[in-house]
């Protein structure tokens, strides 16, 4: 698609270059201003002068971070606005900035993380441009190089082909480098807004649970990346020096082990696989060593393996960390079985076995610790959600009580007056004999209109008494009882139902649905495990709704209720002229019975 670039491709290329190329000088300037200030504040902290300088350093880092966020928005990705702690008045208020974790994260990114990332992206882009231009123009300047007069025509063609390939792949490479910059920058500076349009950028982050939120935390990624980097930097020379391993394979196995911890943050299967491969490779490359050093698990390898296990145990389900621990145990056992006691690298076979036992004990403890931390995080999230839901329920109950009060006022004032008008208009021809036919029809029209208005008033009262927003949530009716029973059975309740409803108005259907819903909730709350019978049938011009639960076989402590459920049900049914009975049965069960009139109860 790059052979004939269209206007869109060229515009995207300019867009990507505007993100990648200026990133390096801006980040370099930010690092050159921040790092000396950090060093000065650290050196002067012993006399407390450096402490006063830290807020200024954090403020400057946040300014650079805001510039990076603006660059991301210009590229097309929306970043969640950062929330900073406000500074207070005076010097004490300025020191409050030290407790702002968001500013410390900005400082860590701008001073440490951004520079190597931008150096990689900008350096690769410049090298790609140089190779493409140099390959295409080799024919013009290649002969001017010393000792290059004997270049064959085939070599000229090969260099030009390489330059052409670099040129054609340049837009894709720049776009990939821009995405790499975004993958690192966006999460650390706030993350993409869910559902935002990224116009070809990285996809928005998925909504997650408590562990997913921890997994997406910028602090989590930074901490793991820092620990992995430190372990790789320490393990490489240790493996090379102590175990006499060539620097190249030592670098590969140590970097692979560290990268497995990074991959485990997002992709547990990748972290597990690479960790097992790195462990096996480390055992192989250190096996020829004759020094009396720990083997088959060098100390640095053990620490890196524990880091991967901790990441898997805290951020993912338990079987990922247990599987990785089991893989390490199996590799250790295989190594012990294949090791010759006379040539054991770590000394005697007993010392090798001791090394394996230490690995199993330490890594097993890390797995247990990680699983415990994960459960604590999940439980804390559940408690927080429960508290939020509880506060929301209290607010909704308060709103429902207020709406019920308004409904009662309307019922007492307006509904009473409308009832009087209906009765007077309907009985006028009996109370006032000798009315002409036109006047009688007029009174009949007044009575019919008032009855209709009173019926609409009752519908309005029912709406005011419900706790749902009816313009956003569909009103349930008798046709939704099947789904209500199915969802209740899914909770483990045993329910038998007899439902043969006639054609009813939406208000009657909604009221009957609420009666059944409250009866089921009442049975599940106070008689868990008891069988429940639901009956909705016509009976003598009314709709009979019964919800009966038997005595539970194993009485347990009941879940306390607010008492508003049955009270609200009575108000709903009473507003339609019906009755509700809720009482205990002689056999130890409980029954909720409602009779809802199908016809207008007003006189005609």
From TrEMBL:
GO annotations of cellular component type: membrane
Residues annotated as transmembrane: 17-40, 46-65, 126-144, 156-178, 222-239, 245-265, 272-289, 295-315, 322-338, 358-377
What's the top EC group for this one? transferase
The chemistry this enzyme catalyses reads: ATP + protein L-histidine = ADP + protein N-phospho-L-histidine
**Which molecular function term from Gene Ontology is one that the record holds?**
phosphorelay sensor kinase activity
- E.C. no: 2.7.13.3
| Name of the featured protein | histidine kinase
Which keywords appear in this protein's UniProt record, sorted alphabetically? ATP-binding, Kinase, Membrane, Nucleotide-binding, Phosphoprotein, Transferase, Transmembrane, Transmembrane helix, Two-component regulatory system
The record's annotation in CDD domains points to:
HATPase_UhpB-NarQ-NarX-like
Task: List residues of the Histidine kinase domain.
Answer: 514-600
Tell me which domain of life the UniProt entry assigns to the organism this sequence originates from. Answer: Bacteria
């Amino acid at each position: 698609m790059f052979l004939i670039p269209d206007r869109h491709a060229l515009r995207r290329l300019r867009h990507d270059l505007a993100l990648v190329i200026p990133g390096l000088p801006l980040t370099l300037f930010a690092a050159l201003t921040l790092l000396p200030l950090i060093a000065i504040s650290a050196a002067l902290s012993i006399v407390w002068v450096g402490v006063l300088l830290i807020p200024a350093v954090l403020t400057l880092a946040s300014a650079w971070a805001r510039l990076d966020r603006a660059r991301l928005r210009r590229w097309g990705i929306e970043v969640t606005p950062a929330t900073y702690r406000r500074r207070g008045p005076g010097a004490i208020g300025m020191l409050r900035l030290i407790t702002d974790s968001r500013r410390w994260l900005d400082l860590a990114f701008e001073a440490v993380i951004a520079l190597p990332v931008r150096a990689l992206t900008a350096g690769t882009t410049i090298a790609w441009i140089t190779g493409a231009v140099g390959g295409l123009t080799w024919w013009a300047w290649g002969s001017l190089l010393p000792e290059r007069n004997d270049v064959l025509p085939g070599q000229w063609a090969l260099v030009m082909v390489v330059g052409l390939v670099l040129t054609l792949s340049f837009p894709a490479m720049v776009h990939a480098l821009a995405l790499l910059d975004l993958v690192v920058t966006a999460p650390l500076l706030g993350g993409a807004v869910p559902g935002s349009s990224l116009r070809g950028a990285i996809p928005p982050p998925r909504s997650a649970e408590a562990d997913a939120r921890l997994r997406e935390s910028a602090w989590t990624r930074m901490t793991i990346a820092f620990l992995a980097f430190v372990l790789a930097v320490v393990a490489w020379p240790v493996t090379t020096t102590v175990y006499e391993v060539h620097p190249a394979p030592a670098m590969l196995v140590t970097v692979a082990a560290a990268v497995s911890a990074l991959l485990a943050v997002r992709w547990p299967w990748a972290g597990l696989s690479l960790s097992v491969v790195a462990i096996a490779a480390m055992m192989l490359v250190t096996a020829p060593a004759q020094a009396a050093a720990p083997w088959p698990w060098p100390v640095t390898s053990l620490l890196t393996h524990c880091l991967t296990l901790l990441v898997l145990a805290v951020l993912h389900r338990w079987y990922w960390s247990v599987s990785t621990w089991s893989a390490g145990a199996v590799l250790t056992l295989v190594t012990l079985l294949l090791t010759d006691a006379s040539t054991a690298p770590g000394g005697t076979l007993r010392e090798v076995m001791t090394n394996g036992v230490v690995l199993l004990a330490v890594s097993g403890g890390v797995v247990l610790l990680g699983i415990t931390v994960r459960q604590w995080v999940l439980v804390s999230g559940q408690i927080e959600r429960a508290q939020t839901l509880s506060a929301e329920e209290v607010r909704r109950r308060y709103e429902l009580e207020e709406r019920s009060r308004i409904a009662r006022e309307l019922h007492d004032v307006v509904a009473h007056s409308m009832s009087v008008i209906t009765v007077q208009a309907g009985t006028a021809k009996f109370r006032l004999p000798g009315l002409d036919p036109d006047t009688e029809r007029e009174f009949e029209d007044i009575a019919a209109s008032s009855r209709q208005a009173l019926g609409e008033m009752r519908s309005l009262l029912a709406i005011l008494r419900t706790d749902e927003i009816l313009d956003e949530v569909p009103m349930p009716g008798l046709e939704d009882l099947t789904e209500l029973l199915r969802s209740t059975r899914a909770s483990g309740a045993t329910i038998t139902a007899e439902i043969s409803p006639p054609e009813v108005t939406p208000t009657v259907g909604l009221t009957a649905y609420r009666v059944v819903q409250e009866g089921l909730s009442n049975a599940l709350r106070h008689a868990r495990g008891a069988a429940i019978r639901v009956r909705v049938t016509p009976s003598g011009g009314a709709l009979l709704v019964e919800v009966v639960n038997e005595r539970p076989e194993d009485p347990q402590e009941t879940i306390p209720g607010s008492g508003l459920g049955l009270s609200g049900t009575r108000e709903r049914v009473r507003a339609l002229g019906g009755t509700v009975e809720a009482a205990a049965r002689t056999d130890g069960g409980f029954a909720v019975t409602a009779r809802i009139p199908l016809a207008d109860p007003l006189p005609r």
